[in-house]
């Protein structure tokens, strides 16, 4: 049985007392959605001893336990009950995040919430709620991107469970997800989504590299390196177009000219991505559906997770790959004012 910490009830009560009507519904769906996740969670040990658990699920949960133990033992990530529970939500994603940006800007729309501060996305436990917000934002003239999310972190407030949304993923992907979400419990800056996600991505990458090396499986290592190479190609491509779009939006050109240049750049991004996808053997129907979603908000979503990865990878290298020292250095960055932190990150590059 999972119990809810008293401090969480205090925060929930405070949220309902200070929020206006516009946010009340959002907080309520967030509370009820997460409570559903926690109600369905059971310790993995219970699942493993339950005769109704299929052998396939038992094998995946056992792997999850190995990865979770490795995270604390070898990566210095928190040793608590997060990801030592499992829940089957009977859906493909746990939440759907909505990203938005103006028509001619890469400045993300921010939503300010208690506990986590202002973030560059808004999450909903029901896809229809996310799509409803997306329609309203599009009607206001914003670029919008909606993405299904397989897992999230409550920053240690709850014992976050493994979910059916991730348990069948390939081994390295499951490891990456656990390392990424646990990293949010190590360093988290209220109101700085780009730093938080970039830090967690660096921990994820280093953690998976060490996990694969520890497993000593040559085929798995080759698969991981290929996956990393492809992800870097994708990130470099999108971030390159991001820089070109920023130049257009920051120029003195009139609105008509900026719109035309925006169309040309996104046409180029679609074509370049199609080239990559064909080379990788991605299903064409899926690729085309994905290509139609490309807009400023999509670029914002990629930037949120990867903007500061090169600088933080450099910080890890400066400390010789010592994760404890890296965590301490990232913590020092977290204590800087926002603009000072940006200067420090740029200096690292």
Q: How is this structure best described in words?
A:
The chain has 349 residues and is mainly α. The protein has helices at residues 6-18, 21-39, 44-49, 55-75, 127-139, 164-167, 171-183, 193-215, 218-249, 255-280, 284-291, 296-306, 309-318, 323-334, 338-348; strands at residues 42-43, 85-87, 95-101, 111-113, 117-119, 122-124, 143-149, 162-163. It has a three-stranded mixed β-sheet. Strand 4 (111-113) and strand 5 (117-119) form a beta hairpin. The radius of gyration is 21 Å and the shape is globular. The chain starts with 5 loop residues before the first helix and ends with a helix.
Features:
3-stranded antiparallel β-sheet, 349 residues, single chain, mainly alpha
Question: Summed up, what is this model?
Answer:
This protein has helices at residues 6-18, 21-39, 44-49, 55-75, 127-139, 164-167, 171-183, 193-215, 218-249, 255-280, 284-291, 296-306, 309-318, 323-334, 338-348, and strands spanning 42-43, 85-87, 95-101, 111-113, 117-119, 122-124, 143-149, 162-163. With 349 residues, the protein is mainly alpha-helical.
